[in-house]
C-alpha cells in the first residue's frame, strides 16, 4: 500500500495509549482492536492482546476504494434481499452490517491466498473478483454454486456449519507441504465462520490440526452475535478470540465494523501465516443487522433497542464521516458511488431475472468424475420418461 | 370427542405440549427451539410455558445435542432432540449409531435411552443444499434404533406422544413439506387406545395393485390412487408409518390379493427402504407376484438444485407409470 | 511375470507403496499410520521411506482426517485416508456424506476429490465392540461415493492402486479377517491392463445356483461351493468387488441360468446390500427365478460380544442351508 | 478426612514457595501440582495456575489405604494382562503407570458422584466398589460390560474416543436441572479421557456445553503421553490443561503419578462443581508404562530410555518410600498388602477361567427395551436352525 495523505497518521508514529482507550470507549472491551471509531475518528494504532501494534497506511484513493466496496456490497446484498422478497430467489443470507468485516478481510487477501467461505461471504466473494451473480444461482435454486474455486481462490459456499474450516486447514497443510510458506510472497489461507460455528466439533478439530501442523491459516470468525436466534451466550461464556490460546496460537478481537482495523489485523495474520508462523484466530466483533436469512423473523428473539445501538456503529456511516472530515471525499464522490451501486444492482437484477432454469436432466451430471453405469441407465430412463409427455415424442 | 382442524406442524406442537405436561422428565432440546420456537415453529410457545430447563436452547453442535441427551437420559430424563434439518444430522451420526443405538444392548438392558430424535425431512420446499434430504435408510439399517414417520396431523399428534412415551430410542421423521397441511385431530382420545406406533395402516383399500408409501409420499400415493380410480383401477394404499421395525403384515396380505406392488419414497433408490421392502415382499409373496415390486424413488444423485426438484421427486405421474409397468410386465 | 505369494495385508502395503512411488501427489494419512505402520501394519515402512509429509500421522479425530483430506484434495493432492476400524468412521460421517460425496456435484465438476478412504471392516477376529462392523450400506446408499472391497491378495494389490488412481471418491473396504490370508500376486502386470475396478467377477463357475458375496464372505461362499459340489450341486460364486456402483451383469446372466440366488454378507440384513441386490435381481430376472433371492447375513442386532460372533456371522452351513431352502421353495 | 499424624503436614500450614520449587524440580514444569515427589518427599502444599492452594490431610490409616489401592489395582491389572497372554482374554488395556491418577481421582469421588470412564479406568472402577471381574467380561468377549452404572455411579466403558465426555456433560446438566448442586452434599460428575481424545470434536463440544450450562463436571484427562503410537505433540503444541481457558473454565496440571496431589486437585474440582461453580479440567500428567493394549508393540515407536525415565517416577514406589520414611508403614505391612493382592488376583483368575460363554441366542437380547417383532422372528429362526444341528433335535 502506498503512503497515506498528510491528514492520516502514518506508520511509525506510536499512539498506543490512545488506541487502548479509544477502543475501550467504543466497545466496552479494552481488548478490541479499533482504528476508526463509530464516529469516524481515526485512531493511529491499536495494540492486540499479544502486544502487536496494528495500523494502516492507505492513500486517499485506497480509502475511497474501501468505501466504494462497502457501499457496493451492501447495495448488491439489498438487491438480493429484494429479489427474494419478490420470489426470484428461494432464500437469501444477507451480510447487512458485516460489510466492513468482509471487505476489510477480503481486501487484505493477496492474489495467491485462498479463502474458504460460509454462505454469507458475498462481500469477500466480491473482493475476490467473482461476478456477484454467482451466489445468486445457489439461492435461486438453479445451481449449487457456479464459480471455479481454483480460478478465483475462493472456495464453494459451505452450508454445513464449520465443515469448511477443516477444508481450509487441509488446504493450508498442502500449502506448507508444497513449500509455499516462509517468504514474503508465500501463500496464506483464510477460513470464514460464524460465532455459532465455534461450537461445532469440526471447527475445534480444525484448531487442533492447524496448530499441530503449524498451517498457514487465518481463522476468521465473524461474531455477529447470533446463530439464527441463539445469542452468543449459547456458544461461549468468554470472548471467542480467547479460544485460540487453548490451542497454542494467537487470537485477537477486532472491531468488525471498522474496515481499517479489520484490514490491518487480517493482513498481519495472513502475513504471519505466509511467513510460516502458523495459524491465528481473528474474532471480528460485529452485528447481523438483518434477519438470519429471509426465512427468519428476528423480532421473535431480539429487541429493537439492541439493533438500534448497533445501528450507531454502522461500518459505512463511520467511513463516510471519516472521509468527509478528512476531506478525502466529498458529496459528489458519495453520489457517484451511490449511482454506481444502483447501476450495478439494476444490472444484477436484470441478469437474475434472465437466469434460465436448468434442464431437469442435468441433475444427473457431475455425480462422479468418472460417471456410473447405474446413473447412465437412470438418466436414459428419465429422458425416455420425460419424452413420453411431449406431444411430439420421438 | 374434541376434534380440531390443525396443520401437521401444529399437531406436533400440541403433541409435544401434551408430552411436556404429562411427564416432568420430558425435555426438549435443540438449536433455536426456545424463543424462536424452532425454524418451523414446531416448538412454538413451549419454552415460554415450560421454562428454559424443559425446552433447552443448545449450542450449535449436533453431536453435542445427541451426546448430552444420552447423558440426560442416563440421568433419568426423556430428551426430545430437534435436528434442524435432515442434512444436519450427520455430525451426530456417531453418537446416534454407536451410543444411542447400542447403549441398551451394551449394558444388557441396564441402561435405557428413551430418546426421540425429531428430524424434519424430505424435499419439495425449494430449499438450498442439505435441506431436503431423506436419510431414513441410514437409521433403519442401524439395529437398536426405531424409525417412524407421520403423514397426517392426527398421526403426527399421536405418534410424537407415543414415541416420547416409548423407552426405545426413536428417530422421528417429520415430512417437512406437509407441515402446513391441515387435517382433523382428535385431541382427547386417550393415548392408551391409540393406533399402535409400530404399525402400518391401509389408508385406501383397493384391489388392482398395492402402493406402499410413508411420510411425504403418502399424499402422492393417495392422489395417484384417485387418478387411477378414474381410469377404473383401484389401488390399495398403505401408509407404512414405521420404517424400523417395518410392519409389512398388511402389505403381504394386500400383495397376495393384488399381485402387484409399487413402493414410493423420496430417498435415492439404491439401498433405500424400497429395496428392503421389495426383497421382503418377494420372499413372502413369491407365488402371488405378477410383476416384481417396483420402486418409485429419488434418483441416485445428491439432492439436486431446487429448480429441478420437482422432476427429482416421485410424483403422481411416476407412481402411475410404475403401476402401468407392473401391469405390463 | 513376477508372481509372489503375499498376505492380503502385505499386498495392500505393496500397492500403497507403488502408488506413493508413481504419483508424488499421493499422501497417506491417519492415526498411527507412520512409525507404527498402522495397527494392522498396512502402511508398514512407508513413512520411513517416503517421509512424514507423504505418510502423515494425524491427531485423533476422524472428522479431521477426512475434512483436512478434502482440503488437501482441493489443493491438488490425492489423499489416502486410513480409518483405524470400521466402527470409528462415524465421527467422519458428515464430512464423508456431505462434503466428500457432494463436492464434485456442487461445483458442477469444477472440484474433484480424488480421495480413498480405507476402512478395515467386518468381524471374525474376536475383537471388542466397534471393531467388527460392516458399514458398507451406509456408504453405498450415498450418491457421490463409490464403494469397493477386495477379497484376495491379487485384487487387494491391484484395486488399491486403481482406487488411488481414480478421481472418484472411493470408500475402500478391507476385509480385516483376511489380512493374513496368502495368495499369489502378480507384481508386474501393468495397471492399465488390470481387471476393471468396478466389475464383479465369477470366481467359481457353476450351474445349480448363484451365490453372490464380497470381501470377507467370498471365502465362505467358495467353501460352501466346495462342500456343495461334494453333494453334486455346482454353485456359481460371484465376487461382487464393487458395491457402488454395483455390477450385476454377471449375476443377471448367472441367475437366468440357475434360477436360484443367495446373497451373503456380514452386515445386518435389514437395508443391507442383499436387499438392493435381491430387488434388482428380481426386477431383472423375474421370470427365471425358481425361488426368491435369499439373504444370508448378520442379524439385525448390534454386533454381539465376540464369544458369539461365530454364530452371528454367516458361515458355510448357513449358506448351504439357504441354498437348500432355495431348492425347496 | 480425619486429621493427619504429626509427621505429616496438616491443613493450614502454608508452604507455597517450597511447593512451587519442588514441583518444578520434579517435572521441569513449574505449573505441575505435586504433593509427593518421585523420591517420596512430601510437599506441604502446591499452588495451581489460578492460585488455588492444594494440600491433603490424611490419617496414617488413609495413607496406607491409598497404598493398598495402588498395589491392588496394579496387581489385578497385571493378572488381566497375564490372562490375555494365555488366551483367556481377547484384549487388555492396561493401566500400568496410571494407578495414582486413577486411585487419586477415584478416591476423591463421593458416593453420590457419577463417573464416565474410557476403557482403561479399571482403577477408578475398583474405587467405585465394582467387582474387578466386571470389565474382564468385556475383554474376554462374553459381554460388553456387566455392571449397573446407576448402582455404582460408574458408567459403562466407552470405546469410541471422547463420546463419553458428552454423556457426562448431559448427565451433569441433569444434575443441575435436578437442583442437586449448590450445597456441600451436592452431586458432581467426572469424565475420564486421554490425551488423544482431546483432539476429538466431541470432547471439545463437551467443553463448550459444560461451560455454557455451567455443568457440575470435572474433565479428567489422563495425559499418558501417547495415543497408541502418537506422541502428545500430535494432539497439541501447548499443555493440555490450558485448553480450558479458551472455554472459560479453570484448568490445572497435576502430577498424575502422585496419588496425593491427584486426590487433592480432583477433590477440589469436584467440590467446586458440587457447589455450583461449574466445570474444570484436570490434566493428570502421567505415563503409559505398558503397551497401548495387549495388541500393541510400543517398541516400534518409543525408546527404552524414555520408559526408564518414567520408571523412576513410579507412583507406587514413591508412596512406599514416603510411608517408610515417615514410619507410617513397615515391611510387614507391605508384605501383607502384596499377599492380599496376590490372593485377590488368584481369585480373579479362577473366576475368569470359569466365566461361561454366553448362549448364542442371547445375542438377540436387549436390542430394544420394547423388543421388535422382526427380531423375534430372527430369534425363532435362529433357534430352529441351531436345533437342526443337535442330534436330539425336537
Ligand atoms: C451442521 C449444521 N447445523 C445446523 C445448520 C442450520 N444453520 C444454518 S445457519 C445457522 C446459524 C449459524 O450461526 P453462525 O455460525 O453464527 O453464522 P451466521 O449465520 O450468524 O453468519 C444454523 C444453525 C447448519 N447449516 N449446519
Ligand atoms: C473414534 C475412535 N477412533 C479411534 C479409536 C481407536 N483407538 C482406541 S484407543 C486410541 C488412542 C487413545 O488415546 P488416548 O485418548 O490418549 O487414551 P489412552 O489409550 O492413551 O488411554 C485409539 C486411536 C477409537 N477407539 N475411537
Ligand atoms: Mg453468527
Ligand atoms: Mg493417551
From TrEMBL, chains A, D:
CDD domains: TPP_E1_PDC_ADC_BCADC. InterPro entries: Alpha-ketoacid_DH_E1_comp, DH_E1, PdhA/BkdA, THDP-binding. Its cofactor is thiamine diphosphate. One of its GO terms (molecular function) is magnesium ion binding. GO terms for biological process: branched-chain amino acid catabolic process. Residues 70-355 form the Dehydrogenase E1 component domain. SUPFAM superfamilies: Thiamin diphosphate-binding fold (THDP-binding) (SSF52518). Keywords: Oxidoreductase, Pyruvate, Thiamine pyrophosphate. It comes from the Bacteria. It holds the Pfam family E1_dh. Residues 18-27 have a biased composition (Low complexity). Residues 1-30 are annotated as: Disordered. This is Pyruvate dehydrogenase E1 component alpha subunit. The lineage of its organism: Bacteria, Bacillati, Actinomycetota, Actinomycetes, Micromonosporales.
From TrEMBL, chains B, C:
Keywords: Oxidoreductase, Pyruvate, Thiamine pyrophosphate. It comes from the Bacteria. Residues 6-181 form the Transketolase-like pyrimidine-binding domain. GO terms for molecular function: magnesium ion binding; oxidoreductase activity. The keyword Signal does not apply. Gene3D superfamilies: 3.40.50.920, 3.40.50.970. This is Pyruvate dehydrogenase E1 component beta subunit.
